[in-house]
Amino acid sequence: MSDEVVSRDDYVGERAFLMTFIFTSCTDECGTLVNMCRLVQEDAAAEGYDDDIAFLLMTFDPETDDAGALREYGREHGADVEAENWRFLRPETQDEALDLVNETFGAPVDVQPPQEGDHYDDGNESADGNESADTNETNASSDENHDAEDHGDDSGHGDGHADEGTTHYYMIFLVNEDGIVERSYPRAHTEIPTDVIDDVQTVVENDA
């Protein structure tokens, strides 16, 4: 992870990517999303297409998830976080993160006001070593997603889970080299990994 702005232009015309949204304090299925990406990463390394796919995992809790926390979270789930194709994205503020997730990607997230007894660290602004997500550039958006194949039942966009006041929907997008969403997995935590791997391989082959 490095202190740089990541834009969609970094990948369009270069490689396909998997994009998902997590936060490290999640006690439910965020780890499953990381594991899914990790399994694809391992297959890509084994099958020799690791230069043709990237993994972008964006936190919508940047006040808590500094670079160190994100890196450790990835390692805990077996990901090669030092690999060139693996990036955690950390917008500067929570509002920017929520705008990017809700409006740009169409993945619903809702943060409720803290209740008495909730613990938030509001003093952790930007940490060295994070990768910033440019809300104007990084936009494999829902507008491009109208022809994408949805996997599973996307009623309500999957299963939401309230965790520390945050409602999160477990989604992964598979975006091709041209920046078009080829597949969306609105219930990604229920997907069979080999099915996702097959989809990724197909998109990479079509991009070649």
UniProtKB/TrEMBL annotation:
Q: Name one Pfam family in it.
A: SCO1-SenC
Task: Return the InterPro entries for the record.
Answer: SCO1/SenC, Thioredoxin-like_sf
* Annotated spans, Disordered: 107-163
Keyword Metal-binding belongs to the record: yes
Q: Where is the composition biased (Polar residues)?
A: 127-142
The record's listing under SUPFAM superfamilies reads: Thioredoxin-like (SSF52833)
Molecular function (GO) terms for this protein are: metal ion binding
Question: What intrachain disulfides are recorded?
Answer: 26-30
Question: Keyword annotations for this protein?
Answer: Copper, Disulfide bond, Metal-binding, Plasmid
| Sequence positions that bind Cu cation | 26, 30
UniProt protein name: Electron transporter SenC
What organism is this sequence from?
Answer: Halostagnicola larsenii XH-48
